[in-house]
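FAQ: What does a ligand-bound record look like?

Like this one, built around zinc ion:
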Amino acid sequence: QNRYDFAVIEEKWRDRWLAGKTWQVEADGSRKKYYVLEMFPYPSGRIHMGHVRNYTIGDVVARYRRMCGDNVIHPMGWDAFGMPAENAAIKHGTHPAKWTFENIDYMRGQLQRLGLSYDWDRELATCDPKYYRWEQLFFLKMLNKGLAYRKLTTVNWCETCQTVLANEQVINGACWRCDQAVTPRQMQGWFLKITAYAEELLAGCDRLPGWPEKVLTMQRNWIGKSTGAELEFSIEGSDDKLTIFTTRPDTVFGATFMSVAPEHPLVAELSRGSERETEINDFVQRTQAARRRLAAGEEPPKEGIFTGGYCLNPFTGARLPIYAANFVLMEYGTGAVMAVPAHDQRDFEFARQYDLPVVPVVHPDGEKLDGATMTAAHEGPGVLADSGDFSGLDHEAAKAAITARAEELGVGRSRITYRLRDWGISRQRYWGAPIPIIHCEKCGVQPVPEEQLPVVLPTDVNFDQAGKSPLHILESFINTACPACGGAARRETDTMDTFMESSWYFARYTCPDSHDAPLHKPAADYWLPVDQYIGGVEHAILHLLYSRFFTKVLRDLGYLSIDEPFTNLLTQGMVIKDGAKMSKSKGNVVDPNELIEQYGADTVRLFSLFAAPPERDLEWNHQGVEGAFRFLSRIHRFVLDNREMLRAAGEELPADLGEADRTLHRKTHQTIRKVSQDIDNSFQFNTAISAVMELSNTLFSLNAAQADKQPQPAVNRQAVQTMLTLLFPMVPHLCAELWEELGQAEALDRQGWPQFDPEAAKEEEITVVVQVRGKVRGRLQVTPGTPEEQLKEMALADDKVQSFVGDTPVRKIIVVPDKLVNIVI
Ligand code: ANZ
Ligand code: ZN
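The answer part, i.e. the structure of the complex:
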């Protein structure tokens, strides 16, 4: 009997917890709050091991914080808009809403089976008009403040499907669905001005000590601040100027040609009507097409073409040929570069390839560079030469001096550039939140009046036209009245990027019932910011940056009082099997459902916490799961086998503690200390679990001893209760059950986190005598079982012993463990 019947135990506690709304919380100004949040899932169909790991980590933090006495908010919801729902609709003929809500129902059940302690009354789905209506309101407010605007952009267009494709849907330059080559197309799109917050987003990175440094570095690089200057070069035979951005104005005397982006308007202008016009156009077409085929971060081989035009260097008057070059980006700086091959490696390689002069002007200490023989650019520091009155200046000083001169001459100014681009939010997709805009022939672009929100996404749509958003042909949606003139007008058919929804959901959780405003300020002020955010590192840039941006915008609109949304961030590693990330395409997926069936939720939780520290990748290992299961079974068996003894024992420790009592009592308190530290410091659940395993080993082996050498019942009881309390955040069902088996009236989830007693945790000390030449010369206070090597070292390091040994060579050291160190000299 006494079998560990996890299925029965888990169902019992799951029902009890859910029915009792055990984790429901309210704002309470008299209590310290703690907000723990895991990144919400996309309702793709079923949860995978990555979810299990993410949500288990968050759940342990939530349960631990509750036991520490905090008022813990731990919500869950669904990132419910997006492409897969639409694809499923096209493929299987189900409506995206139906598909989405069925998935949500199924996945909610899966999360509940894992025993995750969410306040389900705060659950939200972003495809609910009650949610996205507020996002539409934010959009209108941003429009009002000039933070949202419309502009022409280049998109990927598939002629066959008559639709815009996201970058991920373009595979080797062709449509993922029909394989038609994708063409660039100019379209109007909506943008959010995240660049207006670039400086604050960057500065904020220095004030997030609770974030992993690698994530902050990625954010800083993404924002990409560069300090330099803008310089104007006059164009030969024209009144126009070519403005360039440089971080090295000190090298201006070494510029030997100009490079501009292929799509820079100057290229077309210079080549128009020339005999090389077709050749140049071909180059532009070809390089642009090639760029679209590149994966992010990949660089094409350097290539360029002479446009036929020349610039004049504003400092030297030199004539510089203008090249169109494929490595110059139109979207960065001004889309034009002064090329200094002696000091920029890219320019150097380009110059050697096209036989352009290399003129060094910044020489490293004590060296004189020669442009004819250099084999690489000198990008480092140095002193200026051949640079007019700036010669002899250190290159840093020269940057400032040359920028100042450019300003005096009216040909330049200092400038800061960011790599960050404004956020394009228009998607020509159906399953998203409609952008609340109306187009009137007479009045132009008109915002939907706030009182007409939400613009509800219609559900009576057809998906039978080859991937095109059905909104474009849904007359009942499109046709509307202009809010300005009342005449016939058309609704915007683009929907918002789904990153919009995930940029503020954490705030909405604080007041999901607020129906007259997006946020209820007192609740938001009490709960925010999120104290601990947990999610995959794949969201290190966009989701986190957009959420930080939204937080600042909502603050400036008066909805929030915080500057940053997430105080601490934990980025958990991937779950891998056979050396690769678990994924359908690799065929190495382990389904959480099957595991739960076979071993129970507690084992699955324990394994995912024990197998690796949270930030590391977790290597799937079946023996590990078995091991976790056996550990829990042993605890279960011990408690049930000794139930009567444990129940009968008092909670008070007896006054007369024997050796076994002292050992177990000490181990109990040492374990409390270790587990508390491991969780507090860095969520090292794996070592915390190891410590509890050690405690359980001590408990089991002491109780296997002869009857008169066993711990007394009250000491056993204390050890067992401690073990259950410490394990409860990780293994909640079993611990709650065994706690009840001990006859406890009040449930384990109402217990406080155990406090450790430093006195009790202290190792016992014994005295080891040190002899030199047979005479006692010192004493060492050590814990029993201190290894021989350590005793030898301690003995030799002892001052008193040293004074008797002095410089005399030591011949031998004899150690009797726990008793004596004898130094023979
Ligand atoms: C002249 C020069 C001389 C440069 C030198 C560098 C070294 P970051 O730090 O990334 O901001 N650049 C400017 N705009 C560009 C564009 N649209 N596409 C590609 N390259 C561009 O780099 C700024 C430097 O990158 C600028 O400084 C410019 O080259 C180039 F010895 O100007 B430099
Ligand atoms: Zn109108």
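Follow-up question: can I read anything off the structure? Yes, for example: DSSP finds 26 helices and 32 strands in the chain.
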